[in-house]
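It is worth pausing here to work through a concrete case rather than discussing structure prediction in the abstract. The textbook approach is simple: state the sequence, then state the predicted structure, then interpret. We follow exactly that order.
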Amino acid sequence: PLSPIAGMVVILGIEGSANKLGVGIVTDLGEDPILANPRHTYITPPGTGFLPRETAEHHRKHILQLVKKALEEAKIPPKDIDALAYTKGPGMGAPLQIGALVTRTLAILWKKPIIGVNHCVGHIEMGRRLTEAKDPIVLYVSGGNTQVLAYSQQKYRIFGETIDIAVGNTLDRFARVVGLPNDPNPGYNIEQSAKKGKTLIELPIVVKGMDISLSGILAQVTQLAKTQVKAGKITTEDLCFSLQEAVFSMLVETTERAMAHCGKKDVLIVGGVGCNKRLQEMMAIMAKERGGKVATMDHRYCIDNGAMIAWAGLEMYKSGVSTKLEDCTVTQRYRTDAVDVVWREM
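Step two, the predicted structure:
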């Protein structure tokens, strides 16, 4: 087991805001901060999404096994954990409740303080720690969120976002229309399908200042899938390819505008869609042209996981932040810019 060193902080984090359930254990000492990060995903049949009640049932069934697995992997007994972090929001209500309930229970059993973490801030802090991107423009793209952010005066300021649905949700819903499997995730299967696409189909690109709109492009590709693909005029692969190119170009455009506005050269991509190699490639071309670089992570840390919540919790814990037991609730709406980032300098 890891013998506790004076000054070493160990945090256990629980993430369960959507269909991925993760428990992570992190420390602030050593090269690799992540001691354990097991995850279990609720996967539904092709053509279907995941509903809150069934997702919560999945989390309830697997969460204690994951906590045990994380403790075993980290070789750490509960007494050596300094605090427990959990996802307070944003996310789906019922799944979030499971994480909060287990965190409160463990905190009482183990006599530990609790830290409620903003899911989006968890993604950003994990990205900053693992890529060592100091002060980048952040593109946060996932199933439920699409935001372009920059840090200023102890807040992550939102410069642009989607005005309707998120990028990941757009890809997931299109995958359902064309019957692509949800295993390992719909976005990955669209990415693989897009590699075989040969024809670029013109799709509506909607950029409104710093914000983007995706409901129109989703309606368009859905219509094309039901008519043109069925008629054999275009292929599913062409549609996947065209959808990616159009949506990602919108993201590159708004991210570049934020870079110009803030005078920053580097971009950090976080969130589940951040795994996409084509998005990384397009963003890297733009960043290089501006004399900067793009920082990315792989699926272990881009996709929702417990370690990101634990790491954000660790930053908060060291800054003296904690959540009272009676305040360990969840909220489905929790803006990234509502969090006081007290662990970073002004």
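Step three, interpretation. Residues 236-262 form the longest helix (27 residues). The longest strand covers residues 20-27.
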